[in-house]
Amino acid sequence: MSTVTHRTQVAIIGAGPSGLLLGQLLARSGIDNVVLEQRSPDYVLGRIRAGVLEQTAVDLLAEAGVSRRMHAEGLPHDGVVLCFDGQLHRIDLHALTGKRVMVYGQTEVTRDLMDARGASGQTTVYEAADVAIHDWSLDGAPRVTWTAGGQSHELHADFIAGCDGFHGVCRASVPQDAITLNEKVYPFGWLGLLSDTPPVHEELIYVHHERGFALCSQRSRTRSRYYVQCSLQDKVEDWSDEAFWAELKRRLPASVAADLVTGPSLEKSIAPLRSFVAEPLRFGRLFLAGDAGHIVPPTGAKGLNLAASDVGYLWQGLVEHYRGASMAGLDAYSQRALARIWKAERFSWWMTSLMHRFPETGVTGPFGERMQQAELAYLFESKAAQTVLAENYVGLPM
Ligand code: FAS
Ligand code: PHB
């Protein structure tokens, strides 16, 4: 069977937020790119994930020309609430940092990027099977091969952007002796539920409770997203909607539980929690961005935001290369991205360690629980401690 050959400047593997944002930024800078995605558009949109955007991500989406609906439908939040010992403690993000966060679901970000890409005329291949990358060394000639509809294809490119997530092919293709993998797996998961019910509170509530962590988040004034910490042995089919709502109410203060509007789940899923960083993020003409290069526990709302800042650094480096024939930005990509990634990893690990109940064999035990209680008590007494949390939650500078 003959192979159909294609050519572009940047081959992007993955049509999640990282791949689509990079593709859009490059297209608007006049840099031709092709996005290859193994799944269908509907499958990608069906994954319910992040909900909170930092200003850096909002700014990049504006740069990509896809911020109109976000500003029309998104919810700017000036504060966030932590609940401990049945008491609500509001952290005034805007008063402490001058910044706020934007509550706008990843599904909507992805939809906006998909729509923009469709209008841009750039090539996107969905349901690309057997994607493989080749010859990405600095003096090589990068190629991507795949099959679709029984036809084999080959794409020649100057660079490959691995935006294919934690389980993607790009990082897995890097020889083991060329990459360092740093990982910590947490002994629990998050059971998430999406419902067309009004949010229980105007801002997000992160709950520390002896039965386990809970989070009250939202997608709009009529759509809510809730999470409860669960065992890694749990299966989503073990949890009826009624069981979920009952457990969430047990972890909320009575006054908040009384306001909780329950309803049928639109989506319910269990996400494992891990901290993960691959180093470096650049291999010749291959670059890793987003979940392909790192994972954070979602407690700090950093996953999608880190993907955006990676893409921002990579876009700047590629523009510098194509406009000035300088590799300086690309040479600095990995170090610049990793500097921000590790600070977000620290914050996400800290928030996870502070807010979750660890099994007896884990971090907590009696002494660990007292450390959590002392840290939370100090947090609620100290403006300095609240400022540290606020600075990290709204996002450190790029
Ligand atoms: P993605 O994983 O989103 O996208 C990668 C894309 O590459 C996918 O569409 C995949 O199909 C495709 N792909 C993979 N292998 C391929 C191949 N071989 N060929 C072609 N395409 C391939 N972050 C938060 O801030 N808050 C949350 O609550 C939160 N919840 C999450 C829950 C889950 C279950 C997961 C997995 C992540 C969650 N995240 C959360 C993090 C999430 O938002 C990521 O940070 C974000 O999706 C990163 O986007 P991408 O880097 O584009 O990776
Ligand atoms: C969400 O709305 O899905 C969400 C919000 C904040 C987090 C994690 C998830 O820290």
TrEMBL record:
Transmembrane portions of the chain? none
Ranges in a coiled coil? none
Q: Which Gene3D superfamilies match?
A: D-Amino Acid Oxidase, subunit A, domain 2, FAD/NAD(P)-binding domain
Ranges where the FAD-binding domain occurs: 7-348
The UniProt entry, under InterPro entries, shows:
FAD-bd, FAD/NAD-bd_sf, HB_mOase, RIFMO-like
Alphabetically list the UniProt keywords.
FAD, Flavoprotein, Oxidoreductase
What Gene Ontology molecular function terms does this protein carry? 4-hydroxybenzoate 3-monooxygenase activity
Kindly give the SUPFAM superfamilies that the UniProt entry links to this protein: FAD-linked reductases, C-terminal domain, FAD/NAD(P)-binding domain
Q: Which EC numbers does the record give?
A: 1.14.13.2
Q: Which PANTHER family match?
A: P-HYDROXYBENZOATE HYDROXYLASE, TRK SYSTEM POTASSIUM UPTAKE PROTEIN
Question: By its UniProt entry, which NCBIfam families does this protein fall under?
Answer: pbenz_hydroxyl, PRK08243.1
The entry's protein name is 4-hydroxybenzoate 3-monooxygenase
Organism whose genome encodes this protein: Pseudaquabacterium rugosum
* Name of the gene this protein is made from: pobA
